[in-house]
Design brief:
The complex is a heterodimer of chains A (200) and B (367).
Chain A (H helix, E strand, L loop, with lengths): L2 H16 L12 H6 L4 H33 L5 H23 L1 H6 L4 H4 L3 H12 L4 H29 L11 H23 L2
Helix pairs in contact in A: 1-8, 3-4, 3-7, 3-8, 4-7
Chain B lengths: L1 H29 L4 E6 L3 E6 L4 H7 L18 E6 L14 H5 L2 E3 L9 E4 L2 H5 L1 E14 L2 E10 L10 E6 L9 E6 L9 E7 L5 H9 L5 E8 L11 E5 L4 H13 L6 E9 L6 H10 L3 E9 L9 E2 L2 H8 L7 E6 L1 H13 L7 E5 L2
Parallel strand pairs in B: 1-5, 12-13, 12-16, 13-14, 14-15, 16-17
Antiparallel strand pairs in B: 1-2, 3-4, 3-5, 6-7, 6-11, 7-10, 8-9, 8-11
Chain lengths: 200, 367
């Protein structure tokens, strides 16, 4: 495959990961922070940015580890353990570095890093990347797209929840209950994007 | 097969080990903020290794701040005032802090990293929570099913608490009950007696702790409790007070009355004590004494049935009925209730019906 075609594929995969294959709304991964930290748009924004960054970076690191360490040794089955270890170490390292060198960035982004170390969406993206046999360049598109997709979903949810704050919601549905129902409705709406791509 | 397994384990361990080594080195160079000082309430100074979160550091120093989520900024319980050295409020904290808290520098201890010297204020009652060992000095029969237990503190020898607070009494394993059990009882004693805690306990048929106290606990036995807990307490307002409590609900009220006497509190107060029968009234002499020592205090025992003492000439009926009859301009009063959930709900209904705003009603419900 030549470079041009690969870049084009990366863009397609990226767009698909944002809309039709949204990791949150199509695969329902990364739900705990999605429910827990979507009460305010401002917080959701910071968390979403952190997810974009971590997802892109860790899918690339994990691609390298898979391609150059696990595959040559025939240890593909160890990917679950290795991926999670790499993600955890990377996040912790980045958090320490940001905290030391840029208090501003830490304030905006760094505080969210520990919250997403064990986010299943991050691990999920790395595993999908392996299952689907993406090349390095396509993986860039996929990691970025998945992150942006998650970001969009939590921003939309936070926006809805801020409006919902003053509404009268039945007692039994307050909090996570209504949030999950809304997530379901959003997932339905995102399914609509599948038609857009197929109808092309 | 064995060789490949060994290689697999070795490779993964090597990678994990290498990553861990990188982190250890990074932590040494990046997250090392040197020794930092935490000044607590301007009284106590703790020297800690900087770079960690305040909640964890305080816990390591045996200062227990309540936290349910374990430091992930999802419960919002670990609030502490940080006067200096915390930096700006983080976005993870914002959902849990209201305007007033932000202005008073209240922060979530689990999110504040200690990177320089900090000055914090912890509510005194949190500092005071700990385990106390004491000796059961005296057991007094109050009625056929209520006793007063007078505990002399041995370790530590004194306790500071706010009148209205409760302690968790430990019941050691006995009989069929194989594990230790804790039950909450309000402190009934005079807060001026710092070495004493009195508890008023009513026998609950089949209750683990009350059965222990009534049938096994003897004078001279060692007793343990932890505390003090709770935010049931007198407000600073000067408005007149209505106390409503029957049975062992008298405990926190008795403590508050001692405190009012000690501080010569000039607030007017009336105490409606509800009982099913005359024989259930207790500590009446003490209450009459309070009436003579506290200028604005009135004790109103209310008895539902006078069959056992037909000559009773006080209030009769339900305590709520007596309140309805006896309380004028309820809207200006503050009410302090202690008792079973049913009794408290009934009282709140009557009081709000008389025009008292719900914000003026404080209560301690027996769970």
């Amino acid at each position: 495959m030549n470079l041009g075609a690969e870049i084009w594929q990366a863009v397609t995969v990226c767009v698909a990961a944002v809309f039709t294959q949204n990791i949150l709304l199509a695969y329902f991964l990364g739900l705990c922070p999605f429910i827990g930290v979507s009460r305010e748009v401002k917080t959701a924004f910071g968390l979403g940015l952190a997810v974009i960054f971590v997802m892109t970076a860790t899918t690339l690191l994990n691609w390298l580890a898979y391609r150059y360490v696990l595959q040559p040794l025939g240890l593909e089955f160890f990917r679950f353990i290795l991926f999670i270890v790499i993600i955890a170490a990377f996040v912790q390292f980045v958090e320490m570095a940001i905290e030391r060198f840029s208090p501003f960035l830490y304030q905006q982004l760094g505080v969210f890093l520990p919250l997403i170390t064990v986010n299943c969406a991050i691990l999920g993206a790395s595993l999908f990347m392996v299952i689907r046999d993406y090349s390095f360049i396509v993986t860039i598109g996929y990691g970025l797209g998945s992150g942006i997709g998650w970001f969009l979903a939590i921003m939309a949810m936070a926006g809805i929840r801020q409006r919902l704050a003053n509404e009268r919601i039945p007692a039994g549905l307050q909090g996570p209950g209504i949030t999950l129902i809304i997530a379901g409705l959003m997932a339905l709406a995102f399914i609509g994007f599948t038609g857009v791509l197929q109808g092309r | 097969m064995i060789a490949s397994t060994l290689i697999a384990v070795l490779v993964v361990s090597l990678i994990a080990g290498a990553l861990a080594a990188v982190l250890v080195v990074a932590e040494y160079y990046l997250a090392n903020y040197g020794p930092c000082k935490i000044t607590v309430n301007d009284e106590k100074e703790l020297t800690v290794q900087g770079g960690k979160d305040l909640l964890g550091l305080l816990t390591a120093e045996k200062l227990f701040i309540p936290s349910a989520c374990g430091g992930r900024a999802t419960c919002g319980l670990c609030k502490v005032k940080v006067l200096e050295g915390a930096g700006p409020i983080l976005p993870t904290e914002e959902p849990y802090l209201d305007k007033e808290e932000r202005e008073s520098n209240t922060r979530l201890a689990c999110q504040v990293k200690v990177r320089r010297d900090v000055r914090i204020v912890i509510p005194k009652e949190l500092l005071a929570i700990r385990e106390y060992t004491c000796c059961c000095a005296k057991i007094v029969d109050l009625t056929h099913d209520m006793k007063l237990f007078r505990l002399e503190l041995t370790d530590p020898a004194t306790i500071d608490y706010i009148p209205g607070q409760y302690v968790q009494l430990r019941t050691p394993p006995y009989g069929k009950n194989r594990s230790e059990v804790y039950r909450a009882y309000s402190i009934a004693s005079d807060p001026a007696e710092k070495g004493i805690v009195e508890l008023i306990i009513r026998l609950v048929p089949g209750g683990i702790c009350t059965t222990y106290c009534f049938e096994h606990l003897k004078e001279g036995d060692e007793v343990r409790f932890n505390g003090p807990y709770g935010d049931f307490r007198l407000s600073e307002s000067p408005s007149p007070i209505v106390f409503i409590a029957g049975g062992s609900g008298m405990a926190p009220i008795k403590c508050m009355l001692h405190h009012m006497k000690n501080t010569t509190n000039p607030r007017n107060a009336v105490y409606f004590f509800g009982a099913n029968a005359v024989k259930e009234l207790c500590l009446t002499d003490l209450m009459r004494q309070f009436e003579s020592e506290l200028a604005g205090f009135r004790f109103v025992p209310v008895v539902a049935s006078t069959q056992d003492r037909p000559e009773w000439d006080g209030e009769t009926g339900l305590v709520t009925e007596a309140v309805q009859r006896g309380l004028t301009n309820a809207s200006e009063h503050e009410a302090y209730l202690c008792g079973s959930p049913g009794m408290i709900d009934a009282c709140i209904k009557v009081l709000t019906g008389l025009g008292m705003p719900e914000t003026s009603i404080f209560y301690d419900k027996f769970a």
